[in-house]
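Budget justification, computational time. The allocation requested in the original proposal was used primarily to generate structure tokens for proteins on the priority list. As evidence of use, we reproduce two of the resulting records. The first is shown immediately below.
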Amino acid sequence: MVSLANVKAFLRITDTDSTRDSLISLLIPIVYAEMIEECNYKFISPEYDIESSAIYFDAAPAYKIIIDDGGFSAMGYPVGGNIIVSGSRLNDGILTITGQSDSYLQTTEAIVDELQTTVTYQVRIDLCNFPRPLELIASRMIGYQLSNSNSAGITSISLGNYSETRGGSSISRGGYPNELLNSLRPWKMQRTGRGTIQWHMNENRTCWPNGPTSSEGLH
């Protein structure tokens, strides 16, 4: 995921201005979760997943995902990398690894205590592979949140030396401009009646579906 420092650089917030640092850090995993939902795609790395009924979560003294029998070392998860947790009761989401051993992963983001109670309880952990261009898109989404946290329909942003304006008619889901959400199109898995199709862009910025054809036509 994009770092706090890079968000501030993209939004032209000076390094010495720390008044929004906590909020930006809180928003980073939130906007990435929104991008995953918008794209209908999790950006996971194949073969870097582990699933077990023995995974549980411990919030003290540090935020840890634990598997007593071990197995994390074999996955080769990098410190600083991002993982997606699914199948838990209380801790699904995107987390950042800050430390690890064979039996635990320590995370930056807060988790809550959670123990598995049945053999059918299966927690899955996948390593994320977010493309670098998403850093700018995520930063712009964070910028809109910072400038318009009390507005249901965002038409402009003014944050430090950074400003951007959009017409009211262009506002789309979640208060983000259509233009901003459309910038995610190269990674979108479009929902259709019989599955999904992925859109790609060629050098002329023309979109076409990859895989099954869609009755939607091209846009």
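The second record produced under the same allocation is shown here.
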Amino acid sequence: MAKPLVIVESPAKARTIAGFLGNDYVVESSVGHIRDLEPKGLGIDVDNGFAPQYVVSPQKRDVIKRLRAALKDADELYLATDEDREGEAISWHLLQELKPQVPVKRMVFHEITRAAIQEAIDDPREINEGLVDAQETRRILDRLYGYPVSEVLWRKVNQGLSAGRVQSPAVRLVVERERERMAFRAADYWDFEAAFPTDPGFTATLVALDRRRVATGKDFDDLGRPKRDDVVVLDEPAVRELVSVTEGQTFTVRSTEEKPYTSRPKPPFITSTLQQEGGRKLRMSASQVMRVAQDLYQNGYITYMRTDSTTLSETALTAARNQVRELYGPDYLPDAPRTYTHKVKNSQEAHEAIRPAGETFRTPDSLAGELRGDSLRLYDMIWKRTVASQMQDARGRTVSVRLAATTTDGRDVEVGASGRTITFPGYLRAYVEGADDPDAELDDRETLLPPLAEGDSLPNPDLEAKGHATSPPARFTEASLIKRLEELGIGRPSTYATIPQTMQDRGYVVKRGTALVPTWTAFAVVQLLEQHFANLVDYAFTARMEDELDEIARKETERVPWLREFWFGQPSAGNGDGLPDVSEGSAGLKALIDQGMEVIDPAQINMVLTLPVEGADDIVVRPGRYGPYLKQGDRTASIPDDLAPDELTTDKALELLDAPSGDKYLGTDPDSGLDVIAKAGRFGPYVQLGEMPEGKKVKAADKPRTASLFKDMDRDSLSLEDALRLLSLPRVVGSDPADGVEITAQNGRYGPYIKKGTDSRSLAEESQLFTLTLDEALQILAQPKQRGRGRAAAPPLRELGPDPVSGQPVVVKDGRFGYYVTDGETNASLRKGDEVESITIERAAELLQNRRDAAPAKKKRATKKAPAKKKAAAKKSAAKKKAPAKKAAAPKATNGSDSSD
């Protein structure tokens, strides 16, 4: 008997929906997108209406085969992918590839509950062509931007780099912030605090001297200079002298001011605010937040997690208000439901905020048996934020007081203090929003002052001089970067989670705690883009593109002419040198690419910082193939990985250049007459016999012999005798009397071992390489071969706590390839910027989850080409010819495009 077929994106979502629909429906999953743009080359026919050239992903062929088989036995097809642009596009691609001969219906829902699924079945719609066009246009633009610009980066900076419509402006934001920190000069300023022994006690700070305001941090610019002349800047001697003439004096209340205080609840979560609060409160990365939120959505606990709407449905408003009344009482419930407007540029996502699913919200306590770890913590935060959004304002009062005293030498000193009292907590009973600044006061903090009136005397406070220094602008965290991108109108909810991770994967940033620190490679990339592709990293231009893309989606602007202008630009007469005229900004991206390939000088563009040295050559910083380095004349020195750009001063650079090069001459080998040199290598210290022959290509047989130092050896104290012993390896231990096969002792990449033919065994100690006898070797070879390195596992370096996903204890270990974290099931290497001593359980959990999410590499197979079939006449007339292939050195297209949004 034929049944309706329902297709969703994920197996988890399929299982949940199948449980609601029962045996009357067949529910299958597409496991995400089934096809995408051709990964090799541009994948877009720019000469024929910018027709996209789609191919079926090789790993999805079995999926399509399974879906086609299921469709043969179906009497209806329901496409139940997500309700945003990306989900609509998946449904359209399924329709194009499966070519169903049965009625097709599009069912949409923003929560996976029994009632929502049944309503979606009962009230289906057609595929929204506008959403499909919006997604496709963005995908085409991302490829036009990402692929060719990434090729320029590969050729001019380094391989493996990428550019993207959202990614590149985001990298520029991080680099610009670091530039601000590098230019920053701290200003020192002093004041004093007066601690009054009242009930309750309070502390006031010096605010004025002789009726002139005392400078605070906000009164200095980034170069450490006062911004204004009407403030008093005090140094340490002046303040200590002021304290000495003020001690023992009586302060009198000069003024008091009391004001009512009101704090309103924040709106329910949208994607960006959920990621920001997840970072602040739960110490989760943006990608972690979205992974956990997706699991909660697919299992029916929350509504759809990619949205920029703060609206709550009538059902949700009723559920939230009922819980406020039941849990907190009628005094906490406003007379009418609260509504919120959130002005996000280019809002095109789902139409309800992120909230608990269902007609009645389940409390976090009621789900303690079903959810655990990050899932429960994130649900708890979403539930609290939703309920709090429908509660009364918090109310209280703020008090400011000024007190004055006359010093023994006749000067007028004035101190000030402020307090806040919450008289009715309102929504604060349920939820308090976090802050990016760890020193910021949260909304639920109270500061109490005693009752004071003008003229009151407070004698003999304790005075303490306090020194301060201005701070450089704070580096971006994932949360604050997403907030800034949203403010600028750059990116969409679907890209916010992926951008910080992509920046790390490409080597543009490293994490220091939660801060994003740009690498010198990021400086080179941003410098290239600013100088040769300025519009592409211009924030206003990027936001304006979002507006224009939405005009295309609304049919207010034609897609092909817009793309043609972006790619080919305005016609120009050229500038006489065979290259298009790009000086007036009228050239398209293609002309800029051609121009860039011709004129960009890699040596110049990779000179990312110049440090002047008096009386000597300047020091320049370059991102090299094997890491960033300093160059001054003929001298070079590597820049340590843990040295942030804003910490590299001229003095530090000279210190690195003046340090020993790492090469130490030990003597001459008596047998060959060659020099024996101790060197510092990328993988540790080693000794070398002779010099490397000149020339770029040296045959293996002509390369000098090398040997790694043992773990207990030190390069600085290494003797010639020890070096020659290392270079003598491998050592012939003897021959097996049974068959005459030679046994050797060798020092390998994974430690010392012995080898007989193709058989090998690990040795427990490196010293055995020189002391092992033939009998001992035969005994070791006679033992069964053990898995691993054949020695006892080393104890963990640190224990971090339970992993929120597996629940198993997470530890830090030292492995063959360096330090890593593990929960016993999954291993993840520490990345650049991670340190054994400071890594947190939150960061370890992020690394482990990234490792779990990384799909194993699959063998490439020939890809099936699928021409783009669209409903519009312009698309039907698109030619099918493939874009010309790029040179072998060009990047894969997937390296140069943001996630489609």
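A brief technical remark on that second record: Residues 90 and 347 are 20 Å apart (CA to CA).
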